Amino acid sequence: MKKILITLFLLLLIDLNLFAEDSIDASDPTKVYTFVGLGMKYTDYTNDESMVELRTVGNIGLTPNDMVLFEVGYGTHNGSKVEGSSSAVTNSRMRWFHLFQMDYSITSGYRGWATQIDLQLAGSLKGTDGENVLSIGALPAFGINENWSFFLPLNLVNSWDKDFTKHNGVALNVSPLVVYTPKWWNESYVQIWPEYTYFVSGELKDKGSATLDITFGGALSEMAWWALSYKKNYDVHLQAPSRSSDSGLNNYQNIFLNFTRYF
Questions:
Q1: Cβ proximity of 263 and 35 under 8 Å
Q2: Tens digits of per-residue pLDDT, 89-116?
Q3: Closest CA to 210 of 222, 221, 194
Q4: Is 170 exposed, middle or buried (0-12, 13-18, 19+ CB in 10 A)?
Q5: Which end of the chain is more exposed for a tag (fewer CB within 10 A), N or C?
Q6: pLDDT tens string 32-67
């Protein structure tokens, strides 16, 4: 699998420019594209252990309004405080996305909305083998001005254990996204994406989590792009998780560098 991922990475750097008709806007999560991507991710756990992971993603634009995404990783865990696999497949993801009427010409105001069904599956590597999550939601989009946009994803979340034998509960999720497109470098963009999840039923009732994701990205060429993301995790009270050697494999923070080739 590692050889396959490395081959995909090399293909990302080749800009064949065969199918380019319109300019790419990687900053906008509602744009429907076909692409393949590969990246390296580093995860820091609260017990001072860590994971290095290769992640690959494929997105297929089925129609001008529909796309499906597939994502999977393979990682190596550094540390032995917790039992489990030290080198294995990590969590995977499958998403269907449908775009309703969207007017991208609107600079300031409501542009339209989209919906999605997002399934995230637990991996085999320790630290990634916790739960399976199904989210169903809507994503309204707004323009603020020529350089700023705002999106407000709202999701209904269901959680199961990693074998789908036990339902953990139902949660509400809100993930406001602010996008800034300055002219710092070629097709530069910045995404600021906080996320908050709160369980309203099940054994996880009144529990939840929050994250803050900041991404910088840009274009290597017309059809090849890069992005660097930093994510910090918080508990339901918006406090950073405590660090200690016996805290277990709680995700404290991670950084992800990825490259994407559009078609």
A1: yes
A2: 999 999 999 999 899 999 999 999 999 9
A3: 194
A4: middle
A5: N
A6: 999 999 999 999 999 999 999 999 999 999 999 999
Q: Yes or no: say if 117 and 133 are a contact pair by the CB < 8 Å rule.
A: no
| pTM for this entry | 0.88
Is the model's pLDDT at 251 over the cut of 90?
yes
| pLDDT tens per residue across span 183-238 | 999 999 999 999 999 999 999 999 999 999 999 999 999 999 999 999 999 999 99
Residue at token pair 């908050």: 196
Cα distance between residue 263 and residue 260, in whole Å: 10
Could you give the CA distance from residue 194 to residue 206 in angstroms, rounded to a whole number? Answer: 19
Cα–Cα distance between 228 and 256 in angstroms, integer?
A: 6
Closest by Cα among 11, 7, 21, 12 to 259: 12
| Residue corresponding to tokens 């930093």 | 230
Cα angle 153, 249, 239 (rounded to 5 degrees) comes to 55
30 pLDDT more than 80: yes
Question: How far apart, in whole angstroms, are the C-alpha atoms of residue 148 and residue 108?
Answer: 9
Cα-based distances in Å from 193 to 2, 97, 224: 30, 19, 23
Give the dihedral sign, CA 255/119/66/38: positive
Smallest CA-to-CA distance from 254 within 235, 228, 236, 225 is with 228
Q: DSSP string spanning 95-122? A: EEEEEEEE-TT-SSEEEEEEEEEEEEE-
CA distance 83 to 126: 8
